[in-house]
Structures are given as C-alpha cells and as structure tokens.
C-alpha cells in the first residue's frame, strides 16, 4: 500500500512539472502582466519570485569554462537584486531578459525563458551565447551576445610578462553568456570631498567604476555583439568594428561598452576586449635594449588574429575589419596602423580623441619606470633579463600594483614604447617617411572641442584661474614635453594665445582658465590628430575628419558652449536609443535622432570606407524634415582644403580647423626650437618649480598633479646663487626671443 501511494505522488509531481514546462515554452500568452514589467527599449524583467542569475541556470550542465563571478557588479551573471541596486546607486542599467518566439531564437531555457543563440563552432570549440531581445516598438532587431570568449592563453605564472599565447581549446559546449573579469588595475579614487573632479566627471566615474570591480590576471577575453539571424534569406556578411577602450593605459576595460544597439542599428558586428594594463601590460620587464615589451598592444594584435580566424563563424567578414579606439585606445589603434606585426589584421581605423603623435601616447623614459618598480619589489637592478623576469613572476600581482612610483606631471608612466618590433620607430618617422604600412588603412578621426576639460577640478572650472596659476601649470607641461628650451616654448605659446580680443562678458580668471584649456586641448589632442590626418591624406585619399560639437542637454555639460571629451561615445554606442554601458540615460528626441546619424556614419565607414555612403535602410525617425539636416556632403580630408564635418545637431562642413593654432603646434614652434639648438640648455624653470596650486588637480590619471621635488634644499640654494650671479651679467637676447617677447616677458 505504501509503495502504491509513493508511486501516485511521483506521477502527480511529474505531471505538474510537465504542465509548467509546457506552459512556459509553448505559449507566449502565458507571460502575463504580473510576470513582466515593461522596461523601456529592451522589454521588462521577471517578477522577484522568478528571477535567477544566468550563472545559476547553467550550474547543472557543468559546461562553464570560467568559474562563476561574484554578484557584486553590473555584469552579466550578477543577480537581479544587485543589478537593481547598482541601477539605483550608480545609474547602471539592469540587463533584462524576456522570452522570444521560437522563430527568433534557436533555443531558450524552459525554466527562465532565457533565449540562447545558435551554436557556433570556432577553432577552440563549440559555444552558445545569449540573445538580447529588443523591444518590439524600438524598431531594432535582436542581437546575439557572445560574452567572455578567450582569445589568448591566460598570462599567469610563467606567461606573465610574455607575449600572448594561443587560446586553450575546450571540450563540450561553452556557454558564453557572462563577462570575464577585467585585467588587474588601480582604479581612480571616487572621492570628491576636495572637489578633485568636476560634477560631470564625477557622475561619469560613478557609472563606470562598478563595471570594473572583479579583476583577475586571467583576463584576455573578448565580447561579440552580432545582429541576430532572422531566418529570412542567406546570412549576410557583416563588417566588424573592434573597440579598444580608453580612459588610461592603467585602468578600464572593454566590458562596460555594450555594442548591442550599434550592432543592431548599423548591422555590424561589434567586438570589445580586455588587454593587459599598467605595469603588467606596458612595463619593460628588464634593463637591456632587447627586452620584449608592449604586451598590451600584443594582446590587441592577438585579439585581431582571433577575429580574423573565427569571425566568419558568426557571419562576419574578416576582410572588413575596422578598429576603433577612444583616448589612449585611439593611440593604440594608431600604433597598430604603423606596426608590421598587425599588418593584414584590419583594414580601417576610427580614432576618437587620441593619436600616436600626442605627447602622452608614448612612455618617454621606460627604463626609469622599470628601475623604480624593481626597487620597490626588491628585484635585482643589475641582473640579466631572465633573473629580473623570474623575480617579477614570483610576486603576487597585488604586490606589483601597490608599488609606489614617482609620477611626474603630464607624463605617462606605463604605456607603449618604441621597441623596434611592435612600434618600429617613432610615429612621426613611420607615418611621415615609411608609409608603406600606414597607407593601407582608411581613416575616420575626430575630437571634441574641450579635450583637456578634465585637467582642472571643480573649483578651477567654476571660479577660473589667476594668471600665475595658469602659467605655473603650463610651465610644468612645457618642461615635460620639450627637452629643448621649455622656457622659450612657454613664452611663444603665451604670445600666440594671449593678447587678442576676448569676450568682454568674461572675468579675467575665466579668460585665463579658458586659455589654459585651449592650449592643452590643441597641444595634446587636436594638433597631433590633425597631423596624423595630414600624414595619411598624402598616401590614401580615404581620410575623413570630424569635430564633435554637442553636449547632452540633460547632462552636466549641457550648459557649456563647447563639447567635452567623452561626450561623443554615448552617441557612437547608441545610448540615446536605450540603456547601454556607462552612459547617462536621459536624452531628448533630437539627440536620439542625432545618435542614429552618428551610428549610420560610423557603420557606413566600416562597410565602405566612406561615412557618407548611401543610406539603404529606413530610419527609426521617418520625418524627412528632421533627416535632411544630416544629409550633408562629407568631403575627404586633404592637405589643401583640410575639410571636416562639424558634427552637431545641425552638421556643417568646414575647413581648416583652428588653423592658426594647428599651424603653431605642428610647424611654427617645432621648427623654431629645432633651429635654435639640438640640446637642452640651462633653464631656470628646471630648478625652481613652484608647487602647483591646490586648484590645479585633475581627474585624468594621465595628468598627475603630484609634484616631485628633485633637488635637495642646499642644491637649490647653490643654484639660486649661481642664477643671481648670471643675472648680474649683461646677456644678449637671441633674435627669436626678442621677436616673441616684444609684447610679453617670460613669466617668472
């Protein structure tokens, strides 16, 4: 009798389970209003009782290659509760899921309705991703996401400070449904008690940093965002856009930048990736000239090699690969354009706010940085490369990250170096004289109008600068950039940028602040980028330039008349059309339209090499009156006209961007300094450096405000005495000094 009762109970349990499975999988009508809340562009999220993490759903099959991530960040695989907390605290969007009809997705989990992609076979094995289901009213098609795919062997143990190795194959089916950890890094301190950041920059970091909490040396992974196949007609061969993240050579990741909307709207495959950073990615791990370095760049090359070999399995065209970078990422892309190691791996480049010619793009004194690290880790300073490398590999990566290193202002501690292999020579020589590799790439490049805005903190940006505060900061910059007569460079620069008619409605402090921002924006980003365009335009006519000219009206920069660095990224990734990545979520109708146009320009360039290629698809906003503003003839950039698109809500074609100042930085000042001398002479500014004002701080790790006192006090007194003796002697000024100092004395 007891056996009979047990059998009856088992039958009832299986019957109920079967009915629940049938109800969830066979009928879309079963998903009632109580189970999903409408959630904007990407639909809704499940109610609290039915929410489950993606990692938990796959725990039963034992197919995960990477261990489950902790639920403490807004990454795929984190719990819905944590995602909601991050959304409330940081503005990070929750990644919602909704069931899709079977015709749109090859399979989905019957317990949760999670739609999975079709199975894809790459060289390392088989994998599946997850489908990002777009809201039906958005007009966008679904996107297949393949997250956390290894493109190289983990750089741990004996592979630390080594070029990336081939990725290890896996057995079974890998579920590529969650992000990998980011590479080890030192994040900026999110503390604005002393107003170190402007309000806009502080909000930006609050949205970005939660994505970077989980780190590991096993971090060489990439993410693919692929337009979903709708089953109609043959598979299209999609162009590929590979995004190299910026912010710094020492922190950030490709994980935060969700390429779903760009992939869906532009019908392109978007790839984001992680690469080694800071000491682990760019330090030269030895003191000899033949030490291998540039591991971060080699990681990027390994990712491009993986894409070339495997992107066809996802419907991508490995002959239409465009590499896009922002800030330091743009400099990396520019270095890849001149590298023989990367030849043949991509065909077009998009540079946003960065160039290999910028003064921050290269580490100027890599051996000094290496010696400081070795000393801090108690590794041999006079050993051979093998001995030094062995010592570095024995250390925990946390020890390496915590080494205290001097950070001269306006310098790059750990970044790419000219190693003769990855970067064969200085960028000026490679692009200007040996252009056989460089000429093979089509180029789209652009910048914002205030690239140096984050150099100053909230106090200086609000209240302006005194004249001596401006000159002190510029003096630090000139000493770091120019080994030849930094004093003369400072005088020439101030003569070029001051003494002209200014806005009578501005205070003198505001004028000094704006002058400083213009000088640093031109010198560090705009002029180097324009010179890069001039080099390429000589050997390849497919060169296009733009100046991004819009700040989001709902953001902190909306009140400014000039665009701020980083404001363009949200429109490139389609943030106004829906929540993606570390961008704000409030945009108006014109800005949504503007983002469509920007994505169309960029995807057209990836497809044809021309951003103004014919627009084949209908737009989400079908009002012809609105779209006619963006139907402009975007001419090629050349050395004669130097045409560019002023890319705002109403785009306008212009010529010769800031011609006077671009010519000053690219021609006038270098030629004059070269003509004067070939070695660094005595300069009083190199010995007597005033400490920076408390307001001259920065939120950009590349612009370190800490001043290093290089001279003991008795040396300073001795040098001061020598200087006073020199000043008593009559000295004849050079003709060029008399010319530049006619109306201005060198600041003291």
From TrEMBL:
Signal peptide as annotated in the record: 1-23
UniProt-listed Pfam families: COesterase (PF00135)
Keyword check for Signal: yes
PROSITE patterns, per database record: CARBOXYLESTERASE_B_2
Domain Carboxylesterase type B: 118-665
Keywords associated with the record: Glycoprotein, Signal
InterPro entries: AB_hydrolase_fold (IPR029058), CarbesteraseB (IPR002018), Carboxylesterase_B_CS (IPR019819), Neuroligin/BSAL (IPR051093)
Chain positions covered by the region annotation Disordered: 24-45, 69-115
Family stated for the protein in its record: Belongs to the type-B carboxylesterase/lipase family.
Name of the protein in its database record: Carboxylesterase type B domain-containing protein
